[in-house]
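Example 3.2
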Amino acid sequence: MELAALLGELQHRVAGRAKVRDPLSAARRYLAEHASATDASVLRRLVFALMWGRVKVHAADLACFTTDGALIAAALIDARLRGLYPDTEWRAAVLALIAS
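Structure, written as tokens:
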């Protein structure tokens, strides 16, 4: 699924919810607090994929997201598409996920 299509699908699911101000920090916190949640592995893979620029997410993956996970995932994709974080911050986020 293309990033723009994935973002549209996730935004549709979380319409009307508050925006995530700092998606990378929100993802780190969410993954630390919900490490064993079903959507945590999908969210972790998404962060890795966004860093590398090779996103392969399937519709079945979207079904795994809780509302909070979908909100963070949408914010991460939007941040990557808009270039809100430099590559060094994406790499740092991935290294932090590996270390945790």
